[in-house]
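Minutes, methods subgroup
Present: GH (chair), OT, SY

1. OT presented the first of two proteins processed in the latest run. Sequence and C-alpha cells recorded below as shown on screen.
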Amino acid sequence: MPRANRYYLPGHVWHITHRCHKREFLLKFQRDREAWRYWLYQARRRYGLCIFNFIVTSNHIHLLVQDRGRDEIPASMRLIAGRTAQAYNLRKGRKGAFWEDRYHATAVETGEHLSRCLAYIDLNMVRAGIVEHPSQWPVSGFQEIQTPRRRYRIVDREALTSALSLGGVEVLSGYHAARVNEAMSHKQSERDPRWSEALAVGSDSFVQRVHVQFGLRALDRSVHLNLEDGIAHIAESAAPYADDFEGKMPGLKR
C-alpha cells in the first residue's frame, strides 16, 4: 500500500482520515476518544486550525478543515496524533506505533459538495451499524454544529456557514440537520470511497483545476466524473484508507 496523500493547497477544504496502527481498535474507550477531541481543541487554540467537522471512531478519525496557508494543518496533526498516542501508551505501558504512518487528505469543493462530505462524516457510525442517528455518537462535530458550545468550542460555525454559501449562521443548524436526514433517507449513508480515498472531490471544473494545481504530484492520477451524481474526483493510485470495522468487532459492519 502506498503512503497516504497529504498534499495541501492553501484555501481549500480538506477531509482528513487517519487510522490506528494495523487497524487496531486503540480508540475503543471513550476516554481516548475524548483525549483526541481535547487535543483537537488545543490545535484550534494554538495554531488557529479552522475546523468544520470531525468524528472519532474506535479505530480511525475523520476531520474536515480549511487550510488558511499557515501550515496549521500539519502542525495540528502532529500535536493531536502525538499527544493522543503518548497518553494511551503511558497509561497502558505500551510501546510502538499508535497510528498509521500517514494520514490521507482529500480536497473538497465548497458549497454543495462540502455539504455532502459533511453529512458523510456525520453518518460514519450509522454506516458501522453502531447508532441509528449521528446525534447518538458523542465524540463528533454533529452536536456542536447543531448547538454551539459556549466553552471549548471546536467547530468554526461562521466559517462553515460561509463555505456552504448559506445566508447566515442562524440557518446552519436547520440546513445541516436537513442534509443529514436527506442523506439517510436516500441511502447516501453507504460508504463512498471517493470522500476518503481521492485526492480531490467536487464538480468537474473544480477537480480539473485542482489537478493542475497539484502539478507533478498528480501526474499519474486521472480525473473521473460520475454522470449519475455529477461528482468528479481525482483517483488515487491505490486505496490508502478504508472503513475497518467489518469482521473485527462483534456487531460491527460497514
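2. SY then presented the second protein from the same run.
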Amino acid sequence: MNLRQVDHIAIATDDLPGAVRLFQDVLGGTFVMGGDDARKAIRTVQVGLPHVKVELMTPLHDGSYLHRYLQRHGPGFHHMTVFVDDVLATVAEVEVAGFETVDVDASHPAWREAYIRPRSGFGTLVQLVQTDRRWDVGKPGMTAAHVLAGDIVWVDHQVWWRHEAPEPSGVGRRGQG
C-alpha cells in the first residue's frame, strides 16, 4: 500500500459557526474550501492549520446521517481521510490483513473511496481515497462566511457558487473529501 498523505481529520458538530470561529478565528486557521453536499445532507468547512487540515461537518437537516450520528455520539472526531495511490488495491491489502472495509465507491476518478469500519479500526473511521485532484486549495473569493451562508455547494466533487452550479451527473455518490 502506498499511503501518500493524511488529507484531513473531520469533526462533527451541530454548531458550525462556533467551530469555524474556534479553528479559523481563534486558532488562526486558513479557510481552504467547503460547501453543502445535498446528497449527504451536510455542510462542511475545511480549515488549514499548520501540518493538518480540519474538516468541520454539520447536518443540513434532521434526515441527514450526520444528524443521527450526532444524536448517538455527540460532537467530536468523526473520521480521518488518507490519500492512497490505488484505493482498490489498498482495500484488498487492508482486508487481507484482517480489517473490514465498507462503502467502496470507485465510480468517479476525482474521488474513489472506501472506509475502514470503526470496529475494525480501533474506534476510528478511516476513509481511504484515491484522487486525481488537489484538495489543499480552494477557489479564489470563496470564504467560510460564504459556506455558512449556504452560497457554496459540492457538485460532482467540485465546489461551485450555488447560483452557478450544474446539475449533478449522477456518477458517484460523494460530494467532497
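Chair's summary of item 2: The CA atoms of residues 92 and 101 lie 9 Å apart.
Next meeting: continue with the remaining queue.
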